[in-house]
## 1
Amino acid sequence: MDTTIFSYFLAALGGFGISSLLGATIFVVWYYRGSRAWSFRWYQRNWHLKQLAALASLFFLAMVASYGVLHQAWAWFYLIAAFQTGTWWLRCVISSRA
């Protein structure tokens, strides 16, 4: 079975997903740009950034699985991205609990 069509579809989906996540992150940072530290808006901004990081990790893991099934090298790129966003999210959650 030829997997080139699936590869092109995943490349478009990956580009769209990454640009959407980056756009949402830029929007959140811009929307809460004047908030003072430890204010309610600061907590809201951090909450939204944690949600975006969790969503990005899940998106990257889904892309790892998809590219892994197709046995393509892009799976390593998405695995590294998933690991980086996942560790950032975990570090933020742990530091907010302490």
## 2
Amino acid sequence: MKFKLPHLKTQFDKLPSLLKEITYFVEDWAHSKGKQCIITRVTDPVKGESGVHPAGRAVDIRDETSDGQDLFTDAEIEEIVSLVNATYPRKDGRVVALHHSFKGMPRHIHLQVPFNLEKGIVKHV
């Protein structure tokens, strides 16, 4: 796994173990496709956000490069998002993984765990 900026590794190391497990799950999947995950955001704040990143509950993995190229195909994105959400289902009806762009920024795989991990995610299946 690579980190866009060096300080993101330090932030990542402090995340809840379940969020790191899910991120490594995505990394293992990416490696099976001959690709590598690049972490672009951990806890750094962004204006207008919900606060989930600064709270240490989310990780972003690059999909779109600065020149508009996709790192993963549409089929691969659909596969990994579905796989993560099936493997780590949340009890609150929300999803752990989604693919999106925030305020026109590059598209990425967003991984997010609930506030209360013990009550919010079914154990790894």
## 3
Amino acid sequence: MRLQRTLSLAVLAILCAGCGQWSWNPAKWFREPAPAPMAAVQVLTIESTSGGGDRFVQSWEGARLVVDVHSAGGSGTAVLKPAEGQSWPLRLAFRVHSSALAEFEANGAQALRMSFGSVPLTEPALIDLPYGIYRKESPQLEIRWLGNYR
């Protein structure tokens, strides 16, 4: 009986020592892990036509291709085309990183113009292009973003 109790305590001590990596804070038990950073891809060729040193990063978020537009000047234009051997993605969205976004335009098979009124967007908003703005046979898509300099 004494040997059994000693072995039980030894096993319990070993198991408790292995639990040192666990968090004993219940608030952390049900928290979802942070999403992994999205890997950059090259689905579209993007050429800035404004000459403002704009930078474009493409990544997949589910079935949607998101193009992060980093604009130092706050305004600019760009032409997008499918990369060699690629086609247009089914869903396309833009996230414009500028000091303040007042307008956004996309011209392809159809035109889209979004104006954010007198209060421009200061946080990068995700702008999903609706169906029909570009089609699979569209040769290119032109975008324009305009910052607010008030």
## 4
Amino acid sequence: MDPIVDVLLKNGALGLLAGVGFYLFFRQLRLTEKMQEQNLQQQVADTAAKVKLTTAVEDLATTVRVIGDQNASGMKGCQANVDSRFEKIDDYMTELRKEHAKEEGRREATNPRIRVPKKGASDDSR
């Protein structure tokens, strides 16, 4: 027989109680170690998942930054194009105003809206 079991049996009921107590203690210790190992494995898996997620988020941030830079440069080109079109429209409107002013000037010369009084006439005679 095992010497430990032999000693516990010689001590009677207290020996049996001590044996059961040791058995339960060592069983609990084994279960605790098993649970700690499982917990450690879960933490390792969780950390690996977080690393993958962090890498994916960093890649996404880089992609969004590049797309934003491309859009910004594209918008600058678009803004320059729009500005040049506005300049052309402004030039065209200026030309139209000049032509309109020339026509108005001709009309005023041939048919003035305000009649200049002749010399010696009073202001009341219109």
